[in-house]
Each structure stands twice: as C-alpha cells, then as structure tokens.
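Exercise 7b. Backbone tokens:
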C-alpha cells in the first residue's frame, strides 16, 4: 500500500494466519475493511492502523470481496459460500442479506444509493 501524496509505503495491519482475500476503503478513505479465510471482517483506521471493529460474519468459507456503501454506513461482504451480507460499518451487527443465488463464490460487489 502506498500513500499517493508522499509515495510513502505502508503495510496492512497484522492479519495473523488468515489469508487476506477482500479489501475495501470507506468513501472518505478513513477506514479500511479487510476479510479473508477466517470468516471475519476487520475495520481499521487507515491513518493509524488501529483496529476499530471485528465482525464474525457467520459465513461458511472465506470472505472474498467487500464494499462500503456510498455514505460509509454499511459494509457488504461476498463469500465463497455464495452469500452476500450487509453489516453496520460502525458497530458491526448484520443489517440484512441477499438471497443465495449461486453455489459458488460471490466474485464482485458494488453498492449504490437507491433514489
């Protein structure tokens, strides 16, 4: 990871033994969400690297993709078990889920405002 303004290199926070699969920045770039093979989502302060939130997703398999909502209040995850789940990005509780549409992983995610 690099800070564009300075070219300074920084590293992702320690993920332990977990294989990192998904990474997403909040729209304001102040938070970084990471997820992977341990079925957890972690939200970090992107400036200090401090852990802000740990979410046990309840997925059955690795979390492959993450996306923040445009306002940064929600976080959606897509997993190799074919599910997509929506979480409160500041406190962690699950807000909803999408019906299973595939027996394979969710390869891509995007969130948009509905008007």
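Sequence design result:
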């Amino acid at each position: 990871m690099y800070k564009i303004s300075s070219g300074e290199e920084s590293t992702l926070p320690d993920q332990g033994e977990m294989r990192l699969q998904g990474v997403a920045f909040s729209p304001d770039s102040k938070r970084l969400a990471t997820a992977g093979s341990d079925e957890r989502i972690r939200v970090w302060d992107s400036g200090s690297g401090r852990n802000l939130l740990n979410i046990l997703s309840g997925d059955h398999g690795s979390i492959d993709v993450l996306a923040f909502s445009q306002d940064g209040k929600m976080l959606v995850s897509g997993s190799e078990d074919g599910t997509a789940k929506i979480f409160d990005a500041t406190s962690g509780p699950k807000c909803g889920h999408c019906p299973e549409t595939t027996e394979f992983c969710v390869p891509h995610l995007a969130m948009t405002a509905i008007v």
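Instructor comment: The longest strand covers residues 20-25. The two ends are 34 Å apart (CA to CA).
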